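2024-03-11 09:14:02 DEBUG pipeline.ingest accepted 1 chain
2024-03-11 09:14:02 DEBUG pipeline.ingest length=249
2024-03-11 09:14:03 DEBUG pipeline.predict start
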Amino acid sequence: MIQVDLTGKIAVVTGATRGIGLGIAKALAKSGAKVACIGTNEEKLRNSVQGIVDDGGDAKAYVCNVADSAAVDATAKNVLADFGRVDIVVNNAGITRDMLVRRITDEMWDDVINVNLRGTFLITRAFVESMRKSKWGRIINIASISGLIGNKGQANYSASKAGVIGFTRTISKELGNRNITANAICPGFVETDMTAVLEPIYVQGIKDRIPVGRIGSPDDIANAVLFFASPDSSYVTGQILTVDGGLIY
């Protein structure tokens, strides 16, 4: 884990229950930030937050569906009441409903777009005024290499992540004059609970295509988040960082 001092900073991480989101929340807490962890599964979220606290971090759980505008606004009010302000927002919450495009239902399309893209917009909108008032902020959106190159069976997911990339570049132009940066990270194949259910032969096939010779870990993504969250990244905005071990090149 890279060394970044975020003492005194307040961070929000969505999808913080497990996998990449939990890894990011842990890394921010270890770096000194107070972390508001957002997720939908109350029991798992609270267990994850308790783990952060047990390790000496400062974190609090907030149960919220990021695709629900009213729920996001209510959660944002609670976070701001608890912490006073927000400095760092990591939009990580995401779902998949994989299927060939001719078989994607309206519900499968809407579910993915609503969580992955609408959720990123709603959370950003809910906290951006706090950053504007402070004249300091870091918005870090977790996209995907699927949003850059597409992926068979993921028309909905790829479209949502491509939208996140466009959204990131746009808000970087809107908010730069308030000392707020906005960047996106595009993970490649990362070892999480979601990928653990895949057939070993499929995973090995992907691994064989990765030049660095290994599957990514949540810590690989968390390290990129720490850089974008740090004061040292103040002149980096509107950027899309691919963290995939060289998979797409």
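2024-03-11 09:14:41 DEBUG pipeline.report The mean pLDDT is 96.
2024-03-11 09:14:41 DEBUG pipeline.predict end
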